[in-house]
Amino acid sequence: xxxxxxxKTSQVRWYTNMRDVFEAANIAxxxxxxxxxxxxxxxRPPGFSPDDQWFTGDELAVFLHAYExxxxxxxxxxxxxxxxxxPAPAPYVEDNPQYWDGTEPEPQLExxxxxxxxxxxxxxxxxxxxxxxxxSFLIRYPDAKPLATARS
Length: 152
Hints:
Layout: E1 3-7, H1 18-25, E2 33-41, E3 53-55, H2 57-66, E4 71-79, E5 114-119, E6 123-127, H3 131-140, E7 145-146, H4 147-151
Antiparallel strand pairs: 1-6, 1-7, 2-3, 2-4, 4-5, 5-6
Helix pairs in contact: 1-3
């Protein structure tokens, strides 16, 4: 499986809690730099902007540890540390047909290794995660399924 989605399940307290997503996939945010775009949250922590932005892995880990935020819409693009490509256009999830057009989407940001999309607070889409991360996520959330299945 290359791309999976978690939706329509009682296995999560609420969708798109990125702290839980990273933990389930056994991904350390500190191992990457992150471009976060198309952001809408259930609340705005002090000093947090909903504008598209870069985070170092350490900054993202501290943020997710300090605040329990539900990302209603967002795309988290993981890139190798130190790589910061110009995001033109910025990755987006809301109304993005690439997730549902019958092909296997790739990360939208040039140079991104994988992306995690928060979809309308009702689903989490994992694109091109490393195989061990998908395996770990599926152990925690066996209701997750191939993204292609969600389209049929």
